[in-house]
User: Which sequence fits this backbone?
């Protein structure tokens, strides 16, 4: 089947085609019951149960497709969204300075995507790194030096601000006529090797566990941006109600992953103390037990806090504490 000719009427949803965000993104789609079958080597998959087509793209390219409105929804890292936003901002600045308008006929700024929600996985930091055994101790020491990175626009912006601060000019990162003293060298991968191979004095690269940096004899001296995976949308999605539906389903899945349901029995006179420990997302559900003076409580608790919460509940007299996994939710903001 020629899938490209079957996209009419479908909301296009970009998903990372490989890499660290792929599996978690697929798990979210499954939890949100977005059903599809991806043919071998095809980067387009039609959803079986919704008017949606999934487009599998490199994570770094997703903000471009969404920002230009070609694709309505996307899952990618906030770092890639920030890189794209910096590029878009630089292009707008250049346009304005050459007297051209950066607005559409509706008076809106062209380009750019909007973050809908944090998806809670894919944590990492984009950091400035230098050799541990080297002459550079602070970011200022790198001004005028060679910097290797895959995030050229964020790195340029970072060093432009640093150079402006150093020269005493205020906010000249918004001046596109600036001439950077620092040389930003674009690398597409294995950025950590650049210092050892003499290509760069420092790098701007992602750090998750820190293992790669350590193995390459590097240390972080500043953080440019902290990132997690995010759901993004274009400014004018083709089907806004389908965007809302998918966003609400995804929110339901990530809320379910974040919370557990805690049920316990307690004497009614301990209610103020236990509701303080487990206030719930809105409020705890309280039911009278057949035994006089006792109530049963059912309440959502953040998964990461549940052990401490159980300790505290036990200490104030709660008994029969049960913790249940939540398969899915539709509850509002996580
Ligand atoms: N340790 C990590 N290194 C790189 N990216 C990470 C890491 N942890 C989380 N991420 C997130 O995953 C996103 C995609 O990175 P990943 O390297 O998996 O992509 P990729 O498409 O395989 O790219 P590449 O071909 O450059 O390796 C990043 O933009 C970032 O948001
Ligand atoms: O802090 P860590 O957990 O060690 O992860 C960080 C490393 O992971 C990424 O590289 P990736 O593995 O994607 O390969 P690449 O260098 O080819 O981009 C990133 O560019 C770092 O090199």
Assistant:
């Amino acid at each position: 089947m020629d899938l490209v000719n079957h996209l009419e009427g479908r909301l296009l949803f970009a998903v990372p085609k490989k890499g660290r965000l792929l599996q978690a993104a697929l798990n979210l789609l499954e939890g949100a019951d977005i059903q599809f079958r991806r043919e071998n080597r095809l980067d387009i998959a039609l959803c079986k149960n919704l008017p949606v087509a999934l487009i599998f793209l490199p994570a770094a390219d997703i903000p471009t497709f969404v920002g230009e409105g070609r694709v309505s929804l996307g899952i990618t890292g906030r770092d890639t969204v920030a890189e794209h936003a910096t590029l878009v901002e630089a292009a707008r600045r250049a346009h304005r300075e050459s007297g051209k308008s950066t607005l559409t006929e509706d008076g809106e700024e062209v380009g750019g995507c909007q973050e809908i929600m944090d998806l809670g996985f894919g944590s990492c930091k984009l950091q400035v790194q230098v050799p541990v055994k080297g002459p550079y101790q602070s970011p200022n020491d790198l001004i005028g030096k060679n910097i290797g990175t895959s995030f050229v626009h964020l790195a340029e912006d970072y060093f432009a601000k640093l150079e402006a601060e150093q020269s005493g000019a205020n906010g000249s990162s918004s001046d596109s006529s600036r001439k950077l003293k620092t040389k930003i060298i674009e690398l597409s991968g294995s950025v950590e090797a650049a210092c050892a191979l003499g290509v760069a004095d420092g790098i701007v690269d992602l750090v998750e566990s820190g293992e790669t940096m350590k193995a390459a004899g590097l240390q972080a001296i500043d953080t440019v941006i902290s990132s997690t995976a995010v759901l993004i949308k274009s400014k004018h999605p083709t089907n806004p109600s389908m965007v809302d539906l998918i966003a609400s389903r995804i929110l339901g899945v990530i809320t379910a992953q974040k919370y557990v349901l805690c049920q316990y029995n307690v004497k009614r006179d301990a209610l103020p103390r236990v509701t303080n420990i487990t206030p719930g997302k809105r409020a705890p559900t309280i039911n009278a037990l057949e035994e006089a003076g006792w109530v049963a409580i059912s309440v959502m608790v953040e998964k990461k806090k549940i052990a401490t919460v159980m300790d505290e509940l036990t200490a104030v007299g709660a008994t029969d504490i049960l913790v249940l996994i939540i398969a899915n939710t539709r509850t509002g903001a996580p």
